[in-house]
């Protein structure tokens, strides 16, 4: 059975009737460009071949009811009672999206309520944006079902607002943009200032490359601690340097920045500035020389996150170093950091050996066994049925 058929089935079992439609959206891997999104910089993610489905059916009243494969109970909310704090737990994501659609100007005063059912195979807590997948699937479904007429960049902002308010994490636009704009076998080169996006073929399969994900199972929470602190450092750096955001600082400006900033803030700034340049270099290298040539940029990105931005953890470093030692083209942690996943770009014949080496290295260090799997760049949010 396809995932869409399974979603239809689950809806029918839960609600006792056939859904009007099924929409889905993928999680994401960020190939490069970390902590650059909220600095108005550049990112280059792709969509995962793991998705969240939402099956939707009309109701006669103005109630939104959400059920899911990951919770025993459905949660209901009246459309006249929308607020970011109205519900908590997993249901806050889909209901937060409904609230955020209204915040963006959707007139929901006349629409009828809906029943929603959610299923997903995006790993939760792995730094692969399972929450963005959920937000974007629901945002696209309601946008189309209610005829709201928002374009995808606006839906990405809707998802981000839901995330910021519901989860309380001051995250950027990366995850939702990737989930909505991704295409098969391609990356999304996004300018987070203008929100101009260009879809660029990755050609991994042509060059016999695979992307290996190492989910360390080290938990991260962007609503607390490190993520917000990094963001505050970036804002502080921009203030001292007299720019609107770190996007306006170029690699050539770094010597001057070093004179003006304290050591820690300078290293935070240096990560963002050099990471923006690495995204541009990655896109250019990919176009001119193909994906086998981007490895050193991935490696350099990891070093910068480990030493300058200080968002890696020993498990991520071990995954990266072990992959590199066993022949990966390049490797880096991906996502917000402090846990989650690393990625390695690996020649297909080496995938079993690299995976094995990572598992062995984790066992030797006494770390919890990671989950290692390959992913392929896949299509963004869409209607399936
Ligand atoms: C998390 C956030 C994104 C982005 C990344 C770091 O995934 O949700 O907005 O800031 O971290 O690049």
If you had to describe this structure to a student in words, what would you say it looks like?
It is found in: Cytoplasm. Belongs to the GHMP kinase family. GalK subfamily. Catalyzes the transfer of the gamma-phosphate of ATP to D-galactose to form alpha-D-galactose-1-phosphate (Gal-1-P). Pathway: Carbohydrate metabolism; galactose metabolism. The protein has 2 domains: 203 residues, Ribosomal Protein S5, domain 2; 174 residues, Alpha-Beta Plaits, CATH 3.30.70.890. Helix 10 runs antiparallel to helix 11. It is globular. With 385 residues, it is of the alpha+beta class. It is built from 11 helices and 12 strands. A hairpin with a 6-residue loop joins strand 9 and strand 10. The strands form 2 sheets. Strands 1, 2, 3, 4, 5, 6, 7 and 12 form an 8-stranded mixed beta sheet that branches. The site of alpha-D-galactopyranose (GLA) has 12 residues, from helix 5. Alpha-D-galactopyranose (GLA) binds next to helix 5.
Instruction: Name the helicity range.
Output: 40-55%
**Which band does the percent of strand residues land in?**
15-25%
The CATH class of the largest domain, by name, is Alpha Beta
What Rg do the Cα atoms give?
Answer: 21 Å
How far apart are the first and last residues' alpha carbons, in Å?
14 Å
| Number of domain units | 2
Label the overall shape: globular
Q: What is the average of the pLDDT values? A: 97
Topology as a string of helices (H) and strands (E): HEEEEHEHHHEEEHHHHHEEHEE
Enumerate the spans where pLDDT stays under 50 for 5 or more consecutive residues.
none
Question: Could you give the count of β-strands?
Answer: 12
Q: Mind telling me which CATH architecture of the largest domain this is?
A: 2-Layer Sandwich
């Amino acid at each position: 059975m396809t995932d869409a058929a399974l979603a239809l089935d689950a809806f029918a079992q839960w609600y006792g009737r056939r859904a009007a439609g099924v929409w889905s959206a993928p999680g994401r891997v960020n190939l490069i460009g970390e902590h650059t999104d909220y600095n108005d910089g550049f990112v280059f993610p792709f969509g995962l071949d793991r998705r969240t489905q939402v099956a939707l059916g009309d109701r006669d009243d103005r109630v939104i009811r959400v059920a899911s494969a990951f919770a025993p109970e459905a949660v209901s909310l009246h459309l006249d009672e929308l607020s970011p704090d109205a519900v908590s737990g997993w249901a806050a994501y889909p209901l937060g999206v409904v609230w955020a659609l209204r915040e963006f100007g959707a007139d929901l005063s006349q629409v009828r309520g809906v029943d929603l059912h959610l299923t997903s195979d995006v790993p939760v807590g792995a730094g692969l944006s399972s929450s963005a997948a959920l937000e974007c699937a629901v945002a696209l479904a309601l946008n189309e079902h209610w005829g709201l007429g928002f374009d995808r960049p606006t839906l990405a902002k809707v998802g981000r607002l839901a995330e910021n308010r519901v989860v309380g994490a001051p995250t950027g636009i990366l995850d939702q943009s990737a989930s909505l704009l991704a295409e098969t076998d391609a990356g999304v080169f996004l300018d987070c200032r203008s929100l101009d996006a260009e879809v660029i073929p990755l050609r991994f399969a042509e060059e016999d490359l695979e992307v290996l994900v190492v989910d360390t199972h080290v938990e991260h929470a962007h609503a607390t601690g490190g993520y917000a602190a990094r963001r505050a450092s970036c804002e502080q750096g921009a203030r001292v340097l007299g720019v609107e955001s770190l996007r306006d600082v170029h690699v050539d400006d770094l010597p001057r920045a070093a004179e003006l900033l304290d050591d820690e803030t300078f290293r935070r700034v240096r990560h963002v500035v050099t990471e923006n340049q690495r995204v541009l270099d990655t896109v250019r290298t990919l176009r001119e020389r193909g994906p086998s040539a981007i490895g050193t940029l991935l490696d350099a990105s990891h070093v910068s996150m480990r030493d300058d931005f200080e968002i890696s953890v020993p498990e991520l470093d071990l995954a990266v170093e072990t992959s590199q030692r066993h022949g990966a083209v390049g490797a880096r942690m991906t996502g917000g950091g402090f846990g989650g996943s690393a990625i390695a770009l690996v020649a297909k014949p080496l995938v079993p050996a690299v995976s094995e080496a990572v598992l062995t290295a984790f066992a030797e260090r006494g770390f919890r066994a990671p989950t290692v799997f390959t992913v392929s760049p896949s299509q963004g949010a869409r209607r399936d049925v």
